[in-house]
Amino acid sequence: MTKVYPKVVIPTSVSSDQQRFSSETSTAGRNHDPVVLTVWKKSLLFSCDGFTVFDNNGNLVFRVDNYAAGNKSEVVLMDANGRSLLTIRRKRASITDNWLVYDGETTVNHRFSVTKRVNLLNGKAIAHVSTTGSPNNNNNRKGVAYEIEGSYARRCCVVYDDKRRCVAEIKRKEAVGGVALGGDVFRLVVQPELGSTVAMALVVVLDQMFGGVSRRF
């Protein structure tokens, strides 16, 4: 099996990126350079499902570790040290597939919501990211901060802001020598306008929406 990275380095401290998502920045952001992450659809813990995310140097940045018997409608995104960054919870009693994202482990006053687009025949977006609830059926874009287009199943997605600027991309990744790593390993390219924490939260939501029943947490 081709290794995602030959080693996992857990730093003593990792920036949490926990500013408001509309103004998140990073070290790379100050240089106007994108952050390139490697996302592995696998938990580091034997008894869990989840994600393991590395930076360009092979250092662990984010992790999601959900026990098989845990709450399948709630996912916690953590930093390398296991500190909770964002709680991602499916909205109850919602007609559409709608997920709310909260700071830390709180579930009060969500920061933003992600709603699956039901009618894919009308427009290219597969999901909307909103600051004030979900988009309605008449395509009212009020409150829509980002739109996600493409195919998560094919690991080919683009996140656009309200000015149609690309702020994040999900891409397939190949190992050195062109060996395909499969759909469980892919790149997440994040522009400084979005922030890597929010971008990874969107990946988690997309996996819940489009990852398939057998692959849900």
Tell me about this structure.
The structure is a single chain. The chain is mainly β. The protein has a single domain, classed as Porin. The chain contains 2 helices and 12 strands; from the N terminus they run αββββββββββββα. The chain has helices at residues 27-30, 196-210; strands spanning 35-40, 48-54, 60-67, 74-79, 84-90, 98-103, 112-116, 125-130, 144-151, 156-161, 166-172, 185-190. The chain has a 12-stranded antiparallel β-barrel. The longest helix has 15 residues, at 196-210. The two termini are 24 Å apart. Mean pLDDT is 80; it is low at 6-29, 133-140 and 213-217. This is Putative tubby C-terminal-like domain-containing protein. It comes from Helianthus annuus (Common sunflower). InterPro entries: LOR (IPR007612), LOR_sf (IPR038595), Tubby-like_C (IPR025659). Belongs to the LOR family. It holds the Pfam family LOR.
Short structural summary:
It comes from Helianthus annuus (Common sunflower). The protein is mainly beta. It is built from two helices and twelve strands; from the N terminus they run αββββββββββββα.
CATH class: Mainly Beta
Strand-residue fraction?
35-45%
Named CATH architecture: Beta Barrel
The helical percent reads under 10%
Would you list the SSEs in sequence order as H and E?
HEEEEEEEEEEEEH
- How many discrete domains? 1
Number of strands: 12
Largest sheet: 12 strands, antiparallel, barrel
Radius of gyration: 16 Å
Q: Quote the distance from N terminus to C terminus.
A: 24 Å
Cross-sheet strand order for the largest sheet: 1-2-3-4-5-6-7-8-9-10-11-12
Specify the CATH homologous superfamily: LURP1-related
Shape: globular
Mean pLDDT: 80
The tally of helices reads: 2
Q: Given the helix and strand composition, which structural class is it?
A: mainly beta
Model regions low in confidence, pLDDT < 50 over at least 5 residues: 6-29, 133-140, 213-217
CATH third-level topology = Porin
Protein name: Putative tubby C-terminal-like domain-containing protein
Organism: Helianthus annuus (Common sunflower)
Family: Belongs to the LOR family.
Pfam families: LOR
